[in-house]
Write a structure and sequence with these properties.
3-stranded antiparallel sheet, two-stranded antiparallel ribbon, Arc Repressor Mutant, subunit A
C-alpha cells in the first residue's frame, strides 16, 4: 500500500479504485472522513486510504445505507491495514473485505506508477504532449487505437519501437489524463480562399 502521506489526484484515485471520477467526488463529498481529503493550492487531493474506501464503495450494493458506509470508511481511515470489517445495523449485518480492496488498490497504484515512468511531457517533443520516453509516439494516439480495436501486431508494424510495457501503459495514462478541450480547428477554417470563380446558375 502507498505510504499514508502519499497524495493522489482525483483522476489517480479513480484509476486505482476502479470508480468513475464523478463517483470519486461524490464519495469524497458525502462519505469520506475529512482527514482523508487534502486541499493543496485550491486542488483536492486524497490520501491513499481514500482510494480503498472509494473502491469499497464502488463495489457495495446500492441499498447499503450511507451511515453504514461511513462506519466502514472511518475504520479504514483509522487502520489502513484493516482486514475484514463487520457492522450491524438494526437486524442487518454488513461485512466488507477491506484487505482485498487494499490489495487491489496497491497493485493498481504500482501499475499506474510504473506506467508513468515510461511517459514524459517534454516541451521540446510533440509540443509537450505526452509521449513515450525516448520516442515521439503520442500516448493518447496509441490509447485511442487500442480502444478502437487495433491489434498489437498492427501497432507494432506501424510503431516498431513500442514495447509491451508501453502498450500496457497507454490506456492507464489515458484514463488518468483524459484529453481536454475542443479539437483544434483546421488550419483552413477562417482563412481567405486562394481563388474564387463566379458560376452562372442555370434557369429552372
Amino acid at each position: 500500500m502507498a505510504a499514508p502521506e502519499d497524495l493522489l489526484t482525483p483522476a489517480e484515485t479513480a484509476i486505482v479504485s476502479g470508480a468513475p471520477i464523478k463517483e470519486v467526488y461524490k464519495v469524497a463529498r458525502e462519505r469520506l472522513p475529512g482527514r482523508l481529503v487534502v486541499r493543496r493550492g485550491g486542488k483536492v487531493m486524497f490520501r491513499a486510504p481514500a482510494a480503498v474506501c472509494v473502491r469499497i464503495d464502488h463495489g457495495l450494493p446500492k441499498d447499503v445505507p450511507v451511515r453504514v458506509r461511513k462506519v466502514f470508511y472511518s475504520h479504514v481511515a483509522n487502520d489502513p491495514k484493516a482486514k475484514v470489517l463487520e457492522h450491524r445495523d438494526g437486524l442487518l449485518s454488513y461485512v466488507v473485505d477491506a484487505s482485498a480492496a487494499t490489495r487491489a488498490v496497491t497493485e493498481d497504484l504500482a501499475a499506474y506508477r510504473k506506467a508513468m515512468t515510461l511517459i514524459v511531457e517534454d516541451p521540446e517533443v510533440q509540443s509537450g504532449a505526452a509521449t513515450f520516453r525516448g520516442t515521439r509516439i503520442l500516448v493518447h494516439t496509441i490509447a485511442d487505437l487500442l480502444k478502437a480495436g487495433a491489434s498489437v501486431a498492427e501497432l507494432r508494424e506501424d510503431y516498431p519501437s513500442l514495447t509491451d510495457a508501453m502498450l500496457a501503459a497507454a490506456p492507464v495514462y489515458a484514463r488518468a489524463h483524459p484529453k481536454r478541450g475542443r479539437p483544434k480547428a483546421p488550419a483552413w477554417r477562417g482563412a481567405e480562399p486562394t481563388s474564387t470563380r463566379r458560376v452562372k446558375r442555370a434557369a429552372a
